[in-house]
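Section 5.1 Outputs to date
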Amino acid sequence: MSFYQSIIRPLLFRLPSETAHEIGIETLKTALSTKFAQDFVAKRLADKSFGELSRFGLTFKNPLGIAAGFDKNGIVVNQLSALGFGFVEVGTVTFQPQTGNEKPRLFRLPKDKALINRLGFNNDGTAKVVERLKKLNPNCVLGVNIGKNKAVENEDAIENYKASFDLASEVADYIVVNVSSPNTPNLRQLQKADVLEKLLTALQSSEARMSCPLLVKIAPDLAEAEIEEIVDICLRLKIDGIIATNTTISRENLKTKIDEIGGLSGKPLENRSNQVIRQIYRHSKGKLSIVGVGGIFTAEDAFEKIAAGACLLQAYTGFIYRGLTFARDVNSGLAEILQTKGFKSLDEAVGISVKL
């Protein structure tokens, strides 16, 4: 057990979840505020086993990124890169700033290696986050995840997303359309085929789209037919990829007795996430880039998602539970697994557990 897991995590877990998260962000911001400090840490935690990975026109230094939700306001992008993450997805940001839902709104389930959150897109607003990111020289691929303001009705969602999209495209290497958070009322209705197609078509027609890859993040709670409809839309509109998956509203097989609404992330999501990844890969015949997220704690977990069809990975809850060496441990372990199994590259392993 690492120093973080034996000493630091127990101390942080005595604090309210959101307080501990804020302390973690502030500690990263302060401790790794200089390029010297970032380079010093990166030399010890960065893993170069993968060389360069080319995905939707971008070059990634490794396949593991930090998922949206951890650094909502783009405060510790280069600090996270120094810890070994190959890309950082900022957000979710909304066009207008939001305070989010009432606290408490973030809960730990240690017995399940999980979190429940109902944060509700609390963020500084797209314009402020973009101005912050303009002052940054990112050390990794930078994604921006955009969502809908709570006060905006679904029929007005397109303009709300488009306003954020146009701003975010000034700084983002890629943009993710989040229509799958369970914590904004009726947001998931935007995943319905006809509604989603109108939204993505509108974003596709934006001038900013020409220079910015576009992905969509979906829920794990969709039916098979709904997932296939979304895949068909993405292929038809030439969307660059799908992030699978967001948090789940399911509470099946939890060891913890808890009666809190919100999205569940972590280990309980792993199998369902893998199922969705396999379905997307199979239905698209491997033609759609998939970012696999949900329940990654170890290199073995990461490999399962690659084998299911993911070409990139993201984590959040695993990082909270495993600590500062998490990205290095997963990346180096994944590289070792690939070598042991005889793969010459990560690309050779993508989708090997799926019959097309």
